[in-house]
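Supplementary Text 2. Reproducibility record for the structural model of the 351-residue chain.

All settings were left at their defaults, and a single model was retained for analysis rather than an ensemble. We include the record here because the model underlies the residue-level annotations in Supplementary Table 4.
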Amino acid sequence: MRLERLLIGLVPISLITVLLLLAGPLRVSQVSGANLATRELHTATNIAGATTTYKITMSGQSAGAVGSVRLQLCVEDPFPGEPCTGPSGLDFLGATLDTQTGMTGFSIHPSTTANELILTRVPAASVPGTVTFVLSGVANPDTAGSYFGRLETFATDDATGARHDGSGLAFSILPAQVSVQTVVPPYLLFCVGNTITAFDCSSAAGSYIDFGNFSTTKTATGQTKFIVATNAGFGYTIRVLGTTLTSGTNTITGLASQDVSRIGVSQFGLNLRANATPPTGSNVQGAGTGTVAAGYSTPNFYKFVPGDVLVSSTSPDYFRLFTVSYIVNVDSQQAAGVYVSTLQYVALATF
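Retained model, structure tokens:
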């Protein structure tokens, strides 16, 4: 859940506005790509230090060309594209690819490393249904514990360029006397800030948006960004809560239905699109499938109804970056004062 506060100082003739964001990422663990319904890693034995057979299974791949499959095994987390440190003792370099079903024609790419397996073929169409790869001669990590996998497909034959599909998984390496077990923890990642670099929640920054002096001849604008990702089987919703801008008993009218920006008319509204009138905002970025709700998805039209769903997904979703654009207009009768609004962005995942 994210909290942001909109503070607006109003001088006798013109109005001054500031937006406060109480940011800081909320993270509850694990990743899914765009979007593999099944992603599994089975080991014939998961005893620390053992040399064994790994079976990789995936399904739900999207249409398009696939030339390579990459499996990274990491200490840190299951998020594709994040830094990855290989577990001590893990070694794919001695592995051989024994069988493959579903999508076929693969071999082990020479750029494979101890913790990064790359399977390569001449790029060909993705095949729907279940795909499996069985490899023998893989050395398990030599230390018991939980580790993470990042399973991705690419159109290129060497796992370079933009990923085609991507998912995360988790697995455990156990002492010799303990039986095999596997855990895939649920996660919800959500962060908010005035600015966010790429898809990195640790870069979320900014507490205030200053709209400057209000004028009856110009629209004031501001922006908030947020990132969301989850492996929740039934997706997520993001709502906005709070009030329009208020100073005592005086308010700036919140747009109860979609409307264009009207200079000289009392209005407070927002949307999540790139706009030309006024020029502000950005379209959704990222490989996920989360979509903007109808009332907030039309360029140059704005709305603000507390409790409305702004963004939703009905399935696991990869990183998506959304930009919320605010507009404020005032009329000549707007009372002077300090106008304040506290907004909350609430993300809920359904597992």
